[in-house]
Amino acid sequence: QRQWPPLTPDMHLLDFDGGRVRLLLAWGDIAQVLPELVASVDAFYLDGFAPDRNPAMWDHWRLRQLPRLAAPGATLATWSVAGDMRQGLAAAGFEVHKAPGFGSKRQMTVATFKPRFSQQVPPGRQASAPVRSVAVVGAGLAGAAVAAALAGRGLAVRVFDREPGPAMQTSGNPAGLFHGVVHGHDGPHARWLRAAALHTARVLQPLLANSSVAGAADGLLRGESSLDAPAMHALLARLALPPSYLAVADAQLADGRPAWFYAQGGWVAPAALCAAWLAADGINTQFSQPVQALRQADAGWQLLGEQGRLLHQADAVLLCNAADATRLLAPWPTGPAWPLRSVRGQTTLLPANLPGLPPLRHPLADTGYALRLADGRLLCGATAQPDDACSSLRDADHQHNLATLQRLTGWHGTLRPDQLTGRVGWRLQTDDRLPLLGPLPDGAASGTTPGAANPTRRLDQPRLVPRLPGLFVFTALGSRGITQAALGAELLASWVTGDPWPVPASLVDALDVARCTSRAVRRAALGDNSAE
After folding, report:
1. pTM of structure
2. Can you tell me the mean pLDDT for 284-311?
3. How far is CA 239 from CA 131, 242, 247, 258, 441, in A?
């Protein structure tokens, strides 16, 4: 009951008994949910009440979805013995029998999946060959979360990072926010960040409860720029989002604008979160150990250091090292260039003893943010300057952040220059503001490398793009690293191991690194058609 998730139209991944029991709970109509599942199912239990009372759940079209999910020899059971349902199962490739029932039921139906032919799984939906050992490059939020997700599945994990400690380069701010977003069309961006933020809140609960990391997950206020309060209420009603996820805040921001209240949003110290993830059993960390190159071996991949020294060999490699992933991938054609941009950001940190600082019961966010740290200091920011390599703190950026603080909280205070500290970092983001995640495309096999002839395969959907075996990426989390890391890591770990995916298939297509290949193929096709 404590883990029962909000009634949002998402998949919710719940762990029990220390992770030994896992429930993937999907809220939605079966007509929408069933086609979105990616899994290899060993046993089906069909319980949709009586077929004559719930025909939409039992029709032949719905039953024909089961073979796509069925593992070889999968079994099926249901208390119903309705003839039409049994015929539908037989048509779907199941060998159907009656068996003694239970309770007051005289008979029930059992079945075994024995199809006449096997369906071909698209390259982007296939699990890797059996993987026992993995190497993760990068110990920031993405790499630490991936390492923990893989170690939780019993794999031997070794993490490499060029920095002397976790999250020192990419996730080194004293705090960061996590929360979803709301859009009127509820597209991939809103659906992904909602599911990811709710999953992050669940993951953080035990860590915050035992003080493993500093932070809070009891709410966050985010300003709304384009809607007034009545329109916000109308949007919530139309999307049917529950107050346990999102509500219209009673209080306004200091500048008079209304705000959303994300009930399970909050903040956390990213370096401490990375350290907690990397402390999981089965993870070996190698800090101050830059990986200079990758080499494909007869079995798996080799990681090379200075002068080609062999650092490690593993069945699979997962690149979670931000923009440096492109350097390591240079010898392997992965298709079109990724639409990446580096964005400089500067934060401002105010001392706890400044008079009149707002208490900030909850973090505030808008085009910028403000939050109180556990020690009383106030963090605000952050600037966003694309393609800016300056690593020095700039007074103009501090003033920008202080203006954001004033706009959000109304605070008017004076500061001496020596009272202002902060940090400069860089966020890697894509043009569509979604991460790059999944097995790397095989540009040579798909014919999408620069200068190659037109591809002979159908590649207009990411799931159809051929992949390099055992090589994965999770990067470009932008300014939403804390929000996206945990669920992205679970998805990537499921991709590696063949576990059920905790994200709907259509949403995975929006995140899949192979979307860059598919978009290039579609653009080329449109260009050819227009030329004709």
Report:
1. 0.94
2. 95
3. 41, 9, 12, 19, 35
